[in-house]
Design a protein that fits this description.
By secondary structure, this protein is of the alpha+beta class. The protein folds into 5 domains: about 110 residues, Alpha-Beta Plaits, CATH 3.30.70; about 80 residues, Elongation Factor Tu (Ef-tu), domain 3 (Beta Barrel), CATH 2.40.30; about 90 residues, Sandwich (Immunoglobulin-like); about 90 residues, Sandwich (Immunoglobulin-like), CATH 2.60.40; about 110 residues, no CATH class. Helices cover about 15% and strands about 40% of the residues. The chain contains 4 helices and 38 strands. A 6-stranded antiparallel barrel has the order 5-6-9-8-7-10. Strands 37-32-31-30-38 form a 5-stranded antiparallel beta sheet. The longest helix has about 55 residues. The chain is flat.
């Protein structure tokens, strides 16, 4: 080959290489910073979610065993029974599994329901519910019915309670290895002046400062030291304790149970825990609140309410003596009356009555005097609100959420209301108060979204801003592993992008990002390629798509940080070629 031909061939080769590699190299140089910021935010969200899941793990009932949650049900039933019997002092007690709870199953957790029936005084029910909600468990009271056959202030009540706890699939393993819901031990000796020796207490905290229950007695353990082992070799501990409730005589061989207190109940005492007694007597009083003196041209905005009434007892309000044009909302008690500009100053008398459920006589209050005084009314011009401009364009993959928060302000500090203008895509929503926008597109295309914000001035005015949302298909879903080959002694994995009709070649230790899949090739062997996604290794066999490597979808954050932009990812680091799979030799790796 002549020298001039060699130079021409080399120049042509440089142009071809620049054409193929140039866009990818440019994207790496300009897009790496954005990807780093996006990845950092994603990791923060993942960390917060993992912390929440880790807390729930320790508050769960025993994890299900296949389709059955019998152990969790038995542990929860026994704990509720013991609490109602020992602490609540319930009579004629029975706690049974609820068949409705057994039939419900949700991905990741299984609800466990038990139904309690028995008799108790109102104070017993209050004490039971306080310790029930105090427990560090993922549980709740679904329903509670109290029935009384007498009209005494504190009669015996027939109690029917339905409780529900959650059995998570990733619950702590130690729950499945014991019979009780919480760790239990045994008094090996008679308590003596605030000290006692316990055994079978290896699962209790090693550091003091924890709470335990012996029957209906609660003890705060202030010291925990090792004691001499028993003759059978069982480990023993010597506790020093303080009685939280009035101290009672405790006996040897008593069962002691660890009490794990929910964080929200750490500082709440039984005296703080309020529960309405349905048999108590109440003295209702009608009160009218709000400014009773205004200037001419203004409006009276008053509110009637009834205090000292049985909680849950609804009241209906009506007007007695009142000026013409005044109105009252019979449900809320809100009273409104607007004076006319130019009318003379004056006074009037207002009377309000309230009708309570289950009571024939209406509740009244002393007549209220209302006064309006003459004053110049300034003319206020309503200026339109402002809306911060949205990003010109948002790129997103179909099936991924588009989220941003529109921000506006009003010169008069009026109330702002956000809304979407006509033509918004189906399913798109915006919170009228916060401006929080959310939409999960299902199909590719270009969509125009216009956000409007209006004030409550007179006349009301508004402003708007628009953003274009470009929705594309998930390339990872249509990119399939088609071959594993060896070229020049080097193993290669071939992917085929059906959307772009192109081949992508991967080699061991090469990192790539395709769609919203980011991974590193660990090994290429035979029909299987192993990728590292984060810290997890995942295999992909011939015929499977990159969608298998996608990270698990995170729950929607109900309170996202404000942002006026959306993000999406596109192929960047993967190498594309037009070579056909038949041009390479299949790998013989096992």
């Amino acid at each position: 080959m002549k020298r001039s031909e060699m130079i021409l061939a080399g120049g042509l080769l440089a142009v071809v290489v620049g054409y193929l590699v140039g866009p990818s190299l440019l994207d790496v140089l300009t897009g790496s910073g954005k990807r780093l910021v996006a990845r950092k935010l994603e990791l923060k969200r993942e960390l917060a979610q993992l912390k929440k899941l880790n807390r729930w793990k320790d508050q769960s009932l025993a994890k299900p065993e296949g389709e059955s949650a019998d152990r969790a049900e038995e542990q929860y039933r026994n704990w509720v029974w013991s609490l109602a019997e020992s602490v609540g002092k319930f009579g004629e007690l029975n706690v049974a599994p609820n068949s409705r709870g057994r039939s419900r199953r949700t991905r990741g957790f299984k609800p466990i329901q038990v139904q309690l029936t028995g008799t108790a005084k109102f104070g017993d029910v209050q004490r039971f519910l306080y310790h029930f909600y105090r427990a560090k468990l993922l549980h709740r009271v679904v329903s509670l019915r109290l029935e009384s056959k007498s009209q005494d202030n504190d009669p015996d009540l027939e109690v029917t309670l339905l409780a529900e706890g959650l059995s998570l699939s990733y619950a702590s393993a130690d729950l499945s290895q014991r019979d009780s819901l919480f760790p239990q031990g045994r008094f090996a000796s008679e308590p003596d002046e605030g000290t006692v020796v316990v055994e079978q207490a290896e699962e209790f905290p090693s550091k003091p400062g924890f709470l335990v229950r012996v029957g209906d007695q609660y003890l705060n353990v202030t010291s925990n030291e090792k004691a001499a082992d028993s003759e059978n070799g069982d480990k023993r501990f010597q506790w020093t304790y303080e009685a939280v409730s009035p101290e009672k005589t405790l006996a040897a061989d008593s069962t002691v149970e660890l009490v794990r207190v929910a964080e929200a109940m750490q500082t709440i005492t039984l005296d703080d825990y309020k529960l309405v007694n349905p048999f108590a007597q109440y003295d209702a009083t009608l009160i009218i609140s709000g400014s009773k003196t205004i200037t001419v041209g203004g409006s009276f905005k008053l509110k009637a309410r009834v205090e000292g009434v049985r909680p849950g007892s609804a009241a209906k309000f009506e007007l007695g003596r009142h000026p013409a044009g005044m109105s009252i909302d019979e449900q809320t008690g809100e009273i409104s009356w607007e004076t006319e500009k130019g009318q003379p100053a004056g006074k009037t008398t207002l009377e309000v009555l309230a009708k309570l459920e289950g009571r024939e006589e209406k509740v009244t209050a002393s007549p209220t005097t209302l006064e309006w005084r003459a004053a110049a009314t300034p003319v206020v011009r309503n200026e339109p609100p402002t809306l911060e401009a949205l990003k010109d364009e948002i790129n997103v993959i179909a099936g991924s959420a588009v989220e941003f928060v529109a921000s506006g302000s009003d010169p008069e500090n009026g109330k702002l209301v956000f809304a979407l203008a006509s033509g918004a895509p189906a399913g798109a929503t915006i919170d009228s108060s916060s401006g929080k926008f959310r939409w999960v597109p299902e199909a590719p295309g270009e969509f125009r979204v216009t956000v409007e914000v209006g004030d409550d001035g007179k006349p009301p005015k508004k402003a708007s801003s628009s953003v274009t949302i470009q929705v594309s298909l998930d390339s990872a879903q249509f990119t399939v592993l088609t071959a594993s080959v060896v070229r020049d002694g080097e193993p290669q994995a071939w992917l085929f992008d059906r959307l772009k009709n192109q081949r992508v070649i991967l080699r061991p230790k090469s990192r790539f990002r395709y769609g919203n899949v980011e991974a590193e090739v660990v090994s290429i062997k035979g029909t299987e390629v192993v990728f590292r996604v984060g810290k997890e290794e995942r295999p992909l066999v011939l015929g499977e798509s990159l969608q298998k490597l996608k990270p698990v979808e995170k729950p929607y954050d109900e309170d996202p940080k404000p942002s006026n932009s959306g993000t999406s990812t596109a192929p960047s680091d993967a190498k594309a070629t037009d070579a056909k799979p038949s041009d390479a030799k299949p790998s013989d790796a096992k």
